[in-house]
């Protein structure tokens, strides 16, 4: 792959990478108290591209105290909803003005295709920002009839109001660093909360850039803070801080359980968006070409580093060989290259650690008897590349059918009848998403309620929308993001009862 295929990096991006990055607390950039710093790597090359501050518990305390003071001051919470909405819409405009810089930065730091960064990480996030800004003026309660009999002759009028929950801790993973930060910040701010974001240590750059843009748009100091650092240090301290009222965590199920335990200690509210091992169920009448396109998108978008990704492909036996053969050819034909090359369809994984982890899973798959239909190798070249892989000959008890690989690896299994595939699809501790592929409406409508997942697509896999609740059943999480559910997640209900 020659550099001639790479898009030119904007001077503003090069300048941002070279900055002396700090933490973003109380509306400005400050160094970590310890002075500790951490290198940030570019997955396409494996080289260091920036350094950021490695925050600790003291830094987290500064950020939370700032968010708490901003919350109490009313500088944000006390604004008229229309003013909050206007500032958030301006925030979206400022992000749009910096769209290309943000997209390039994400591709350089996360590895994903520049097309994906432009379209989803930034483009879809701007739409989400505007959608959530609109909620600031649409938060509502209820009036309720009550029957309180005392004192005799007294009448009551009762109503509920939704009030911002307080300081929100947003803990963000590395797969969609900008988008998932925005998923947390915008509804929290629309509700009048203040926020401390802890990005993943692998991908801290766009959250820092975003915080600067929020300030430029007029979000007051202390309302949106960012502490970069390790999960075991800054992340842990944030989840334990007594002034945090709500924790919104997206990441692995194992860490999510630790976060929930810490939250319970303070009785902080929490929402967990965790892992998935999502089934794609293909009935015999489905269109093979449509299934192949759907599996490429659902299974290999962002190199499969998508919590909602299709990772178990169940095909009704009559069509199994045809689907595996066509999909195998399509997967083998995907071009591999750096994210800055818009023609490269499969890009580097986020880190050397993730590359090793996927490589280990591929070895386990082979050792357990999987048949490699396409790909199957960690690539011996600079950067963290793994071939897009389709494995067949799988059994339900194999490791790669049970565990989340979080890489470009799809496993295929045949099934005979619908009852059998329902059992197989639900035979997982996870329950984030699923898809059903058929042109038989009755069959689809019968399957949808039987699948244990927070989202079920029919003839599609992976698109999300700001208005459609998103979250997991079982060990894929607790709570829902997006839509009205997001507003409910960042507010408390206050009941007001007036005697007259
Ligand atoms: P991770 O759990 O390792 O890390 C997520 C975040 O938690 C990071 O910011 C990390 O620094 C922080 N963290 C780590 N240890 C912590 C601790 N003890 N206390 C507090 N914070 C801590 O996950 P990851 O590897 O960054 O992301 C991949 C995982 O995220 C996958 O399992 C994937 O399925 C899941 N994910 C889920 C969704 C969803 O919406 N359900 C979306 C994206 C990713």
TrEMBL record:
Biological source species: Plasticicumulans lactativorans
Pfam entry (one): Aldedh
Top-level taxon in the UniProt lineage: Bacteria
PANTHER family listed in its UniProt record: ALDEHYDE DEHYDROGENASE-RELATED
GO molecular function: oxidoreductase activity, acting on the aldehyde or oxo group of donors, NAD or NADP as acceptor
Keyword Oxidoreductase in record: yes
Similarity-based family: Belongs to the aldehyde dehydrogenase family.
Aldehyde dehydrogenase domain segment(s): 32-496
Organism placement in taxonomy: Bacteria, Pseudomonadati, Pseudomonadota, Gammaproteobacteria, Candidatus Competibacteraceae
Protein name: Phenylacetaldehyde dehydrogenase
Active-site residues from the entry: 273
Keywords: Oxidoreductase
PROSITE patterns on file: ALDEHYDE_DEHYDR_CYS, ALDEHYDE_DEHYDR_GLU
InterPro entries, sorted: Ald_DH/histidinol_DH, Ald_DH_C, Ald_DH_CS_CYS, Ald_DH_CS_GLU, Ald_DH_N, Aldehyde_DH_dom
């Amino acid at each position: 792959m020659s550099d001639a295929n790479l898009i030119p990096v904007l001077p503003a991006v090069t300048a941002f990478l070279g900055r002396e990055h700090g933490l973003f607390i109380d509306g400005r950039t400050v160094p970590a108290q310890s002075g500790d710093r951490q290198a940030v790597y570019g997955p396409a090359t494996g080289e260091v591209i920036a350094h950021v501050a490695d925050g600790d518990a003291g830094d987290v305390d500064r950020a939370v105290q700032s968010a708490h003071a901003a919350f109490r001051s009313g500088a944000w919470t006390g604004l008229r909803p229309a003013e909050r909405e206007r500032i958030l819409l301006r925030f979206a405009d400022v992000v749009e003005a910096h769209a290309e810089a943000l997209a390039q930065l994400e591709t350089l730091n996360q590895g994903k295709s520049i097309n994906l960064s432009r379209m989803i990480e930034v483009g879809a996030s701007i739409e989400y920002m505007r959608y959530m800004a609109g909620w600031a003026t649409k938060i509502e309660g209820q009036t309720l009839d009550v029957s309180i009999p005392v004192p005799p002759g007294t009448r009551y009028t009762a109503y509920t109001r939704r009030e911002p929950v307080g300081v929100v801790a947003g803990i963000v993973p590395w797969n969609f660093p900008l988008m998932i930060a925005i998923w947390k910040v915008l509804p929290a701010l629309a509700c009048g909360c203040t926020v401390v974001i802890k990005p993943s240590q692998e991908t801290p750059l766009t959250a820092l850039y975003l915080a600067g843009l929020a300030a430029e748009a007029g979000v007051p100091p202390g309302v949106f803070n960012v502490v970069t650092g390790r999960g075991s240090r800054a992340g842990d301290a944030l989840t334990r801080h007594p002034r945090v009222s709500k924790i919104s965590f997206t990441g692995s199920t194992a860490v999510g359980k630790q976060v929930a335990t810490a939250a319970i200690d303070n009785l902080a509210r929490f929402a967990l968006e965790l892992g998935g091992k999502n089934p794609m169920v293909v009935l015999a009448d489905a269109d093979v070409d449509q299934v192949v396109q759907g599996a490429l998108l659902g299974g290999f978008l962002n190199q499969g580093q998508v919590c909602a990704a299709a990772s178990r492909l169940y095909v009704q036996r009559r069509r199994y060989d045809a689907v595996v053969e066509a999909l195998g050819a399509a997967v083998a034909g995907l071009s591999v290259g750096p994210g800055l090359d818009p023609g490269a369809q499969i890009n580097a994984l986020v880190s050397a650690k993730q590359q090793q982890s996927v490589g280990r899973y591929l070895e386990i798959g082979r050792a357990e008897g999987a048949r490699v239909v396409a790909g199957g190798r960690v690539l011996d070249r600079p950067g963290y590349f793994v071939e897009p892989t389709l494995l067949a000959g799988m059994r339900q008890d194999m490791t790669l059918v049970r565990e989340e690989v979080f890489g470009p690896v799809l496993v295929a299994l045949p099934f005979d009848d619908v009852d059998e595939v329902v059992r197989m699809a639900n035979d997982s501790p996870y329950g984030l998403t699923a898809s059903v592929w058929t042109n038989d409406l009755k069959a689809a409508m019968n399957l949808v309620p039987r699948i244990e997942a927070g989202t079920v697509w029919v003839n599609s896999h992976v698109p999300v929308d700001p208005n459609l609740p998103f979250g997991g059943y079982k060990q894929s999480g607790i709570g829902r993001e997006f839509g009205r559910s997001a507003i409910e997640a960042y507010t408390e209900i206050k009941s007001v009862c007036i005697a007259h």
